[in-house]
Amino acid sequence: MIEDQALPRKAIGQGIGSHAAFICIAAIFMSPVFSTLLLSSWNGTFSDWQSAARLFFLPALYLEIAICIFAFVRGFSFAKLFACSPMSVKIFFALWLMVFFTSTMFADTNQSAALVGTGFWIVHILFFMAVAYLVRMDGIEALHLETLSVLLAASAAFSGIVLYGFANIKGLDGDLEWVSYLPGFAHIRHTGYVFAPAIAISLAHMAARPNKLRKTHMVLLVLNTALMLWLGSRGPVFAVLVASIVCMSFFSEMRSFRFLLNAAIAGITGAILSLIAPLPNHGAFGAIQRFWSSSSDPTAFSSGRLNFWSETAELILQQPLIGHGVFQFQFVSTNAAGIYKHPHNSILQFMFDWGVIGAGLLVTLIGFAIHAAFFKAKPSPYVRLVSAMGFTTMLAFSLLDGVFFYSYTIAISMIFVILPIATGYSNPKSSA
């Protein structure tokens, strides 16, 4: 994806005494904590900025921008990285940019929203390259990935505990609009975006490092599983199960009896706790109860996704080549009712936004990144397993929700791809 010459000339493991990459990634991992603390209201009244920040995970976007600026200050150059990329990446990326900007120019439903969405994606692209640069510059030892794994899982647990405490203090039988007034999140389903990577990272760590921080991750895994299920998220269950099955095929550590036993104990304990804990008087809570009550109705089981997907396929046929433009879904889709921002499926989202051409180009670029990260790069076994489990979870989750729409989940997914790429290529001069 990015050739070694494009990255700073640092040998693997030779840090320069800086923890810039660690701090930057830690800030992204902790953005749910910032959101929970800063984007809350006791009576459900929010300022315009708070409402927008809750809806689009703006704290994560602001952190992406700050990290890009910091990387530029430290010598990052987009032009140099692009120039040193493989020719195939250059061609597909340039073609995708052409479709990307063309779809924005011809987005006739809401041009201002398309421009905003275009700006978001430019930030995401620069963030990907900036973090790769910073990680490579500091070296793998300065990254402290084991600490970062705890931080990601602990941030999710903290947010979940705050939500649980808020619900109980407000009164479970109260008349609060539980779906959209919870601290830090514009919709209760958005909590799943935080718990999915947290659970994945704890499972990966327990498999890769069974003798280090095992009790810590066991506790965090129990907490995050219980809180996720209590809050009613079912998509992360599917995503983590799919990722676990995929990673078991490639990593023997994921098939060890000790890991499977610990994972089962933590998962079952978390599920039991979610059933024991009293639920608010609202059907959005309780994932296990929602699984059971909707099992006989496909539309209810999919939470209306089948209707979204069917309509989105028809909308794609209206603009099949270059799409409707980014951030246009809520204005075009009838099912969206001016509220829902995406079709709850990444492939359909890409085709709706950028047409078959743009979606095909972007999926190809993602394929290049996956190949570079997990098949060509030679990172440490720990980096490879944690990154593979994390990214596969987000990829599977994206088939059911807006993982590649919101800033936080895009940033998290990118980090899981960046880590093996930025740490898995030795400097030719140093290794000679």
Count of all domains: 1
Structural class based on helices, strands and sheet pairing: mainly alpha
| Number of beta strands | 0
Q: Give the biggest beta sheet.
A: none
How many alpha or pi helices?
A: 20
Give the helix level as a range of percent: 55-70%
**pLDDT averaged residue by residue:** 90
Give a description of the structure.
The protein is mainly alpha-helical and 432 residues long. It has one domain (4-431). Helices cover 67% and strands 0% of the residues. It has helices at residues 20-29, 31-38, 48-56, 58-73, 78-83, 87-105, 111-138, 145-170, 192-208, 214-230, 235-250, 257-276, 287-293, 298-301, 305-318, 329-332, 346-376, 381-397, 407-423, 428-431. Helix 4 crosses helix 7 (111-138), helix 8 (145-170) crosses helix 9 and helix 9 packs antiparallel against helix 18.
Short note summarizing the structure:
By secondary structure, the chain is an all-alpha fold.
Structural topology:
Elements: H1 20-29, H2 31-38, H3 48-56, H4 58-73, H5 78-83, H6 87-105, H7 111-138, H8 145-170, H9 192-208, H10 214-230, H11 235-250, H12 257-276, H13 287-293, H14 298-301, H15 305-318, H16 329-332, H17 346-376, H18 381-397, H19 407-423, H20 428-431
